[in-house]
Amino acid sequence: MDRYQSFAKSGFGRLVVGKLGLPNPYPLRRHTPGKPALDGPVLLGGSGRLVEPVAAVCKSIGLDVAAEAREDERYAALVFDATGIDSTEKLRELYEFFHPVIRSLAPCSRVVVLGTPPAQAASQVAQRALEGFVRSVGKELKRGGTAQLVYVAEGAEGNIESTLRFLLSGRSAYVSGQVVRIGTGPVEVPDDWEKPLAGKVALVTGASRGIGAAIARVLGRDGAHVVCLDMPGQGDELSAVANEVGGSTLQLDITASDAPKRIVEHVTQRHGGVDIVVHNAGITRDRTLGRMDAGRWNAVLEVNLASQERVNQALFDSGALRPNGRIIGVSSIAGIAGNVGQTNYATTKAGVIGMVDSLSATVAGTGATVNAVAPGFIETKMTAAVPLVIREAGRRMNSLSQGGLPVDVAETIAWFAHPASSGVNGNVVRVCGQSLLGA
Ligand code: NAD
């Protein structure tokens, strides 16, 4: 909990926050292995092709599902199948379902609306309209609640489980106001949903600290052998992370000309290939454009984008990325909204989105996927170095009024990495608490 959050929870703080209408951050409920996914029942509404598959998934997660609102019940999640909405008039069903219950949700509640991709729908207008509804609900929810829209392609009804398990749990604590697209793809159902990555090999770049270390921990927790990669100078910290997660280390600079070759050799010789590649290593070298020397521009372009493209090319050319492989990029909301002093950084982070667009089309239908997260304000050394006023603004300017934690980014990556997420391809999901920037 940050200092403002502690203040806002104190007796005096509550009074001041209430009277002045200041942001009121609620402590987010995060995933704890062995604990229930949600603290309460799910109310499931709507009348489309997904009602039955959603009910089946909720039951397999162990959630209590109600089809009719019960008096005085505090629901932990409201799930609405909007695939049956085939005209603008029928959008009224959203109002009829949500209006009576939206004010009596449990803390850290979940709202999930499922639709048909507008281009495939009987009413493109009505399905596109769902976005505005969900994003507004996300802004209205209090006490750590989140809202998402999931467009499920025709024929992808069997591909929703990993996504619902992510969205209907504390794993998605800092993800809100997002639109996720699920397509068809061969679903690899894990033997154990608590260890879905058992037998998989994951490579995480920049794994010695911050978000990269959290990614290594979460992928390790989920059963993967994690190859932790970082700069040679980061050896001690890197070994500590690798030991903690039962993984191994690979010390190299990803911008080195022989880096792609060394990565391919390492994963093929030691593990027979790699299943999951997370391009997390990234740097900032901020200056406004007129004051930026070429060195700053080049360094950021090399680490955050060009080197990743070379590694991807080498992985594809060598066949080192195994079938149903996962490539996961780390973009940023700066790549979506732009940011003063970050023309170099934002160029690369928008480029990562371009990488997702281009490679996801290449791998479509093969079972492999390419996706990215776009973090907002995450509490790390990188953001601790930001001047206080800008830092406070970044922390509060989102629907959850707080910064996210590295684990929030890591959980989102673990959902992409999941063997049952083959239908989740070409998505860029923001982990930003529904930041006002670039919204
Ligand atoms: P960090 O600086 O704490 O960690 C980055 C890691 O990458 C370091 O361990 C560093 O040694 C490694 N690295 C840098 N250059 C490398 C190279 N050439 N070869 C190998 N390793 C290299 O940063 P972080 O805050 O944990 O950020 C991780 C990623 O998340 C970055 O891509 C960053 O742009 C992105 N991101 C962070 C935030 C945030 O709020 N912290 C927000 C949006 C996006």
Automatic annotation (TrEMBL):
InterPro entries reported in the protein's UniProt record: KR_dom (IPR057326), NAD(P)-bd_dom_sf (IPR036291), Sc_DH/Rdtase_CS (IPR020904), SDR_fam (IPR002347)
GO molecular function, one term: oxidoreductase activity, acting on the CH-OH group of donors, NAD or NADP as acceptor
Stretches assigned to the Ketoreductase domain: 200-381
One Pfam family, short name: adh_short_C2
The protein's name: 3-oxoacyl-[acyl-carrier protein] reductase
Family classification: Belongs to the short-chain dehydrogenases/reductases (SDR) family.
